[in-house]
Design goal:
The complex is a heterodimer of chains A (390) and B (595). Chain A is mainly β. Helices cover 7% and strands 45% of the residues of chain A. Chain A has a domain of 108 residues. Chain A contains 4 helices and 28 strands. The radius of gyration of chain A is 20 Å and the shape is globular. The two termini of chain A are 40 Å apart. Chain B is α/β, with parallel strands linked by helices and 595 residues long. Chain B has a 7-stranded mixed beta sheet. In chain B, a hairpin with a 2-residue loop joins β25 and β26. The two termini of chain B are 48 Å apart. Classes of the chains: A mainly beta (390), B alpha/beta (595). The interface between A and B is large, with 47 and 50 residues.
């Protein structure tokens, strides 16, 4: 037989197995580590990559036809590559990027910069992503959440203040504050639950404060019942939040997530709690995925410390999680009793030559297609086949 | 500033073929001579009239270099030599020279016999054309003439593909053709040394692509085949004898072995014989693994893949067949296709590009019914899968190549400038290099700095060293050195004046200028001399000024004051030809003193 190294054999094994586990699998070797991925239109993604020079570059990439065309047509297209549509360098390292849907613009929060900046994506005349302007606000490197009507909610990293800005007129509508329940002041992470309702998550405790942006007032709060969890694991933990509304731009129109929006919070100690906003007194699913992120070793931006979680745009009972290691996990969170792992994408580890790698970010595309990136510069687009017993 | 001029031939935005004119140091070189596969008329060939509207092209082009055997890089060569009349030298690697005529002939057959075209080159044309080709070896320096030198580097991509380094005088260019930076199952990755060319020319299409990994594309291939045979279907894979066939066979064999599959796999006889021969001939062009395997045994001696017999076409049950030709335009693959197409359980996998008009092309465009010359129609219900296995560099690959060879400028051809600004900025940021993007049919000029190497005589160097206390040369503080440039044959040497005179066989003559100034300055001549000394020293701080026996001297300039106490003083200023500037300056200076 053909002479092979044992490394090759291992890789080959994994690929042969993958034939049964994935419908589609695409892997891309980038020059830089991709840290964030956002969908900018039905067949395009924007990614933030950390360049060697320390600068961050934003790339607008067309997804390959093999991924975007209907399965029935997939055989007749041969393109499985990413095409660079436009690119540019940002003024300062990007901590968070969001896409302004349908405007060919992105809004970024940059390290040590006050307010947030808006960049134009490329046009017919130029493929450069250039800085357009900024949104003034006194917060340094704020965290952002957007709704469909161009409202941006910005929170400060270490205070309890937040502002709501109307991007259409580039004006601050109002500024408010959430009282702190702990001794230590710590920031809030914003996330829209529906068009007018935003959730502000306390990073230290996971408490959620609901805020109505139209009425400009807070209208409720709830906290995870952390007493039930892994008391043995003492130590500081950080929380992050995600909602089904975040997938509003997704291509699956099914489920109209707007009607019964769900919210999920996850902690660096592995907690994963899902709420249905119609009744926040009781969590739909309370679980612990059994993994831990060591906060000490990831000092730096908020997003490099907390896990990334996402709801599947096709099925709200599925939530994905990454950031704990080199894998992306998909869980069934329909209820606490049924909580289980539906799929584990371990492709990134296979490429890291024995060195531990970590998944930096991931996002759901459609129909069980997930796009994930790791700190070994690879980006994967994979369509998994869920376990038969879910 | 000496310039390098590049003109990609071809109008408008077409990217289907490569043919680039390179002008440097008075030489004109044609890089690749490709044919556009999408056109059926003259547009498929480059517009050679651009080079010389009328008259023989041979006098305009010093040589033609072909990077590899793909038709979009060599398809127009027979036309260029036999029908347009170029008779100059043509260079390509050995495998390219062996394989190109086979592809050209295949293509000619399709064009003429299947599509009934006229005014195409003939089989004899192809043979005659190839006779004019000079084959080159990797890393071997070839002097095309006294001034033009070329060298081929391994490019990966396909068997025999090369990147070419071209030098005229002190200017050099690297043309990449198609290359690949990651090794695959049968070829290695491109490699080049730190040759620091003035210009690196590459394709822009790759620069804006990020390629799906080879492994994933192979996975797709295996998955589709496995699923088809699992449901009892038959898989037809039309291939070119010298294309990806070997690679795909190896891939399938490995998978079949590992998964313990029993479904029969066949290859058409003749497919591998030819390929075997070429791979044996060019074994050094394949990668390490293949070489190791070949040493042990015949590369095509498979355990699971057997020679095909036409009788098997009607065998029931699942099977996989590799058959030629690759575009389903004739022969065995077409025969099999006609039989298997109407069954929806079956599958055809097209791993390559198909020329317009072939059945392969029709099928890839979704045709559900194909009509043949004899009124026979075939319904296409089988699954059609188009897959790309070509190994091309991508955005990351280009950056890697720039890092390897360290060019002074980069040029990306066949792209739109508006779509390349980001890459231009990236290259500038990362390497601080200019990136040019010429439009097809337009000439792009790159300025290069030319260095003229000179020999310097040892004597001169020693004198200079002595004068400046052996201080090493400092590019920020250039020092003046006097010498004579002697040109003998093609070498140039800077020599000491005396040596130069000896060399030329002439006597050295020295010219000395003397001027006399009259000054009114009562007092002893020595006092005047001191005043003058002081003035000169103040003005010429960096120079060595000294007073010896009543004469002030600075380099070869002498200032002597004569005259008695009451009289006018005569100041004699004299200097050597070499110190003309200094002498005039001092004279001028002293003149001002006199008033």
């Amino acid at each position: 037989m053909f002479l092979k190294d044992s490394d090759d054999e291992d890789e080959d094994e994994w690929f042969y197995d993958s034939i049964k586990r994935y419908k589609q699998l695409r892997m891309f070797d980038f020059e830089n580590i991709i840290q964030q991925i956002e969908l900018s239109d039905p067949s395009t993604i924007c990614v933030v990559g950390k360049h060697k020079s320390g600068k961050h570059e934003v790339l607008e990439l067309s997804l390959p036809e093999k991924l975007t065309v209907a399965p029935s047509h997939e055989g007749l297209v041969k393109n499985s590559d990413l095409k660079l549509k436009s690119g540019g360098f940002t003024v300062a390292p990007v901590v968070q990027m969001k896409v302004l849907w349908n405007q060919r613009r992105i809004i970024v929060s940059e390290k040590d910069q006050t307010g947030v900046a808006i960049y134009n994506l490329g046009s017919a005349n130029s493929d450069l992503i250039t800085r357009f302007g900024s949104v003034t606000c006194e917060f340094v490197t704020p965290l952002m959440a957007l709704n469909n009507q161009d409202f941006v909610l910005l929170t400060a990293t270490t205070q309890r203040d937040f502002v709501v800005i109307d991007l259409a007129v580039n004006a601050i509508l109002y500024k408010l504050s959430i009282d702190s329940t702990n001794e230590t002041e710590c920031g809030l992470e914003p996330s829209f639950v529906s068009e007018n309702l935003a959730a502000l998550c306390d990073r230290n405790s996971g408490s959620i404060f609901l805020h109505d942006v139209r009425a400009s007032k807070t209208c409720g709060n709830f906290s995870p019942a952390t007493q039930n969890f892994n008391e043995s694991r003492v130590g500081r933990k950080l929380w992050t939040v995600k909602t089904t509304y975040c997938n509003k731009k997704s291509l699956s129109s099914a489920h109209g997530g707007v009607n019964n929006p769900k919210l999920g919070i996850a902690s660096t100690m592995g907690d994963l709690v899902i709420y249905d906003l119609r009744n926040t007194s009781v969590a739909v699913c309370e679980s612990n995925i059994g993994k831990v992120i060591d906060i000490q070793s990831h000092t730096g931006d908020f997003y490099s410390q907390v896990p990334v979680i996402n709801f599947s745009p096709d099925d709200e009972t599925q939530v994905s999680s990454s950031g704990f290691d080199g894998n992306v996990y998909v869980y069934n969170v329909s209820c606490t009793e049924k909580f289980k792992t539906v799929f584990v994408h371990d492709g990134h580890i296979k490429q890291s030559d024995g060195v531990n790698c970590r998944v930096t970010s991931h996002m759901w595309y459609q129909e069980n297609i997930v796009i994930s990136a790791a700190d070994n510069s690879w980006l994967h687009c994979w369509q998994f086949i869920p376990d038969a017993l879910s | 500033m000496p310039e390098i001029k590049i003109t990609p031939l071809g109008a408008g935005q077409d990217v289907g073929r490569s043919c680039i004119l390179l002008s440097m140091g008075g030489k004109n070189i044609m890089l690749d001579c490709g044919m556009h596969m999408g056109f059926n008329d003259e547009r498929r060939f480059p517009d050679f009239t651009y080079i010389a509207p009328d008259g023989p092209l041979t006098s305009y082009i010093d040589c033609v270099i072909i990077s590899h055997f793909h038709l979009d890089h060599c398809g127009a060569l027979p036309y260029f030599t036999e029908m347009v009349g170029y008779t100059g030298p043509i260079y390509m690697t050995h495998p390219t020279k062996a394989i190109a005529p086979i592809l050209l002939e295949d293509m000619r057959k399709v064009a003429v016999e299947r599509k009934g075209e006229s005014n195409f080159f003939t089989s004899q044309n192809i043979k005659d054309c190839m006779k004019k080709v000079v084959a080159v070896t990797l890393h071997q320096s070839v002097m095309v003439d006294g001034h033009l030198e070329i060298k081929a580097y391994y490019a990966g991509h396909v068997l025999g593909a090369a990147m070419f380094w071209i030098r005229v005088g002190s200017q050099s260019v690297v043309y990449t053709g198609d290359y690949n930076m990651t090794p695959d199952r049968h070829l290695g990755a491109a490699w080049i040394d730190k040759c620091r060319p003035d210009l690196l020319i590459s394709e822009s299409t790759y620069a804006t692509t990020i390629r799906d990994s080879k492994r994933c594309r192979e996975r797709d291939f295996l998955k589709k085949i496995h699923e088809c045979v699992d449901r009892g279907g038959k898989v037809l894979i039309p291939v070119f004898a010298l294309g990806r066939a070997q690679e795909l066979c190896i891939l399938l064999e490995t998978y079949w072995e590992r998964m313990n599959l029993k479904v029969p796999v066949y290859f058409a006889v003749g497919l591998t014989e030819k390929a075997n021969n070429y791979y044996k001939m060019f074994i050094t062009w394949t990668n390490q693994k293949i070489r190791k395997t070949f040493v042990q045994r015949n590369m095509f001696d498979f355990k699971h893949i057997k020679p095909f017999d036409k009788a098997y076409i009607d065998n029931p049950g699942a099977m996989v067949v590799f058959a030629t030709p690759g575009m389903l335009h004739a022969g065995l693959s077409l025969q099999i296709f006609k039989k298997w197409a109407p069954n929806e359980n079956n599958m055809v996998i097209m791993p390559g590009f198909c020329v317009v008009g072939t059945v392969g092309h029709k099928v890839l465009n979704g045709a559900k019914k194909i009509e043949f010359e004899n009124r026979q129609t075939v319904e296409v219900k089988m699954s059609v899968q188009y897959m790309s296995f070509s190994a091309h560099a991508d955005a990351k690959g280009i950056m890697q190549l720039i890092q390897y060879c360290q060019p002074k400028n980069v040029m990306l051809v066949h792209g739109e400038a508006a779509k390349m600004e980001f890459l231009k900025e990236k290259i500038k940021k990362e390497f601080d290099l200019e990136c040019y993007m010429p439009a097809n049919g337009e000439t792009c000029v790159v300025s290069t700095s030319m260095t003229i190497p000179l020999d310097v005589s040892l004597k001169l160097l020693k004198t200079e060293a002595q004068k400046h206390n052996s201080l090493p040369p400092d590019p920020k503080r250039p020092r003046v050195m006097h010498g004579v440039l002697v040109m003998k044959d093609s070498s140039m040497c800077l020599m000491d004046v005396d040596d130069a005179c000896k060399e030329a066989g002439i006597n050295r003559h020295l010219v000395r200028f003397t001027s006399t100034l009259r000054m009114e300055d009562p007092g002893p001549a020595s006092k005047t001399a001191e005043k003058l000394l002081h003035l000169i020293k103040t003005r010429l701080k960096d120079w060595h000024v000294q007073l010896t026996e009543g004469s002030i001297s600075v380099e070869s300039v002498l200032v002597k004051v004569e005259g008695s106490e009451e009289e006018q003083k005569n100041v004699y200023v004299s200097w050597d030809n070499q110190d003309e500037e200094l002498g005039s300056y001092i004279l001028g200076l002293l003149k001002t003193m006199g008033h």
